[in-house]
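Lab notes, practical 5.
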Amino acid sequence: CGDSGYMAPEYAMDGMVSFMQDVYSFGVLLLEIVSGRRNQRNFNLIAHAWKLFEENKCLKLLDPTVRDQCFLAELEQASTCIQVGLLCVQESPSQRPQMAVVIPMLSQHQVPWRPLRPVVCVPVSTPADLRDMKEDTSGNFEMIITDLEGR
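Output from the prediction step:
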């Protein structure tokens, strides 16, 4: 099994096992190292990193005690780590880079493509978003609540 914070979506939802699960876990670990924070149920590090990345503020993800001591080249390297981490946590295993590609990206500080929004970042604003309201023939409403659970 494993810690749910490192579990790839395909394993958590369907129990599908693949080598790309390790890539997903590596991406989470990379984001944790850069930020100095853990990906937990009460703090979604991946969603936080994505939000900052979309706002072009990804360096705000860095641990402030580390960020304040970095030179420009080190900040660029950290930015690369964040982008690679986000590539590694893509929803579909086919969208994640293989580890043989990840290592050169990290060492050459070049990310060849932009990450897509990871599945864990899909906004759900209120529980009402998960509800379907259906009117029966008597004019009464029936509420159906879908509750998704991982394995």
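Observations recorded by the TA: The domain at 4-122 is CATH 1.10.510.10 (Transferase(Phosphotransferase); domain 1). The radius of gyration is 18 Å.
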